[in-house]
Design a protein that fits this description.
The chain is an alpha+beta fold. About 30% of the residues lie in helices and about 40% in strands. The chain starts with a strand and ends with a strand.
């Protein structure tokens, strides 16, 4: 596996990835509306194929992960991508790394907490508000849990 900066990927490859794995390129979360192919980030490649991808934004002394995908679980792909962003965040002078996930995403909550992130805020009804801008966001997610709230997690760096 090799990690590359998204600057070295074609826009077409990034757009294709987000259409395949997110149903589109727009990410709507309480911190903003993002066009994922335009964001900074990294891709994990194996045999020149994308097996993972992370995007983030710098916000002053914080960096926020906007998306993280690992196409093969339990192989260290997500961890390697987070480490790449964390290194860049340190280089940029950021003091923390943040991520927002939804209340139903139990796997993501476990994943981030195992890597030092802590829950710092519940954003009640945030997903319902996001649906006003992106109606295709599902109403029910993993384990049959209604998707309504966002959770903000943070890791000091």
């Amino acid at each position: 596996m090799k990690i590359i900066d998204l600057k070295h990927m074609s826009t077409e490859d990034k757009v294709d990835f987000f259409h395949t794995h997110w149903g589109g390129t727009k990410m709507v979360i309480s911190s903003g509306v993002y066009e994922c192919p335009e964001l900074a980030g990294y891709a994990a490649l194996e045999n020149e194929k994308i097996i993972g991808l992370i995007t983030y934004v710098e916000k002053g002394r914080e960096c926020e992960i906007v998306s993280l995908d690992s196409l093969i679980e339990n192989k260290g792909i997500g961890t390697s991508l987070i480490q790449a962003v964390e290194s860049e965040a340190e280089r940029l002078g950021c003091q923390s790394l943040r991520v927002i996930t939804t209340n139903n995403n139990i796997r993501a909550l476990a994943f981030y907490q195992k890597r030092g992130f802590r829950m710092i805020e519940i954003l009640h009804d945030a997903v319902q508000r996001a649906r006003e801008l992106k109606p295709e966001i599902p109403t029910v997610g993993n384990h049959g849990i209604p998707i309504v709230d966002e959770l903000l997690l943070e890791k000091e760096i």
